[in-house]
Amino acid sequence: MKLIAGNPGKRALNAHEPQPRADLAAPPAWLTERQQGTWREVVELSPPGLLKDVDASVFAVWVVAFDLYQEASEKLARTGMLIKAPNTGVPMQSPYLAIVNRQAQIMLKAAAEMGFTPASRSRVVVKRDASAADDPWGAIAGGG
């Protein structure tokens, strides 16, 4: 990302940064069926090479947060933003609103880490074909 941004901090770049090889695979068994479906759908829709196996924990956080966000949003739509307090009957904020807001924060933070937001995606570089990308003559020979 620093190469793209022009290395604004002028600190030395890590030429030996670890490069995970294995793509993200099947969802963990402990996720609910709905969460596993979200996992598979997002992996399928993601750019090839973006999600790696070492990203599984951060991705699981995003998937669970998305599921909780969706469930709380559905319930918030049914109850409305204000409910009556059980003991007094005084209008109060729906507890689902706090859940929606918190899960949105978690999702956005995890999404930025994985290149899911438009701003973070513009800073991600995914090497598609290592042999063609490493060939300095590829562009001249018509390979890139």
UniProtKB/TrEMBL annotation:
Superkingdom in the source lineage: Bacteria
Pfam families (alphabetical): Terminase_4
InterPro entries given in the database record: Phage_term_ssu_P27
NCBIfam families tied to this protein: sm_term_P27
Name of the featured protein: Phage terminase small subunit P27 family
Native source species: Chitinimonas lacunae
The organism's taxonomic lineage, starting at the top: Bacteria, Pseudomonadati, Pseudomonadota, Betaproteobacteria, Neisseriales
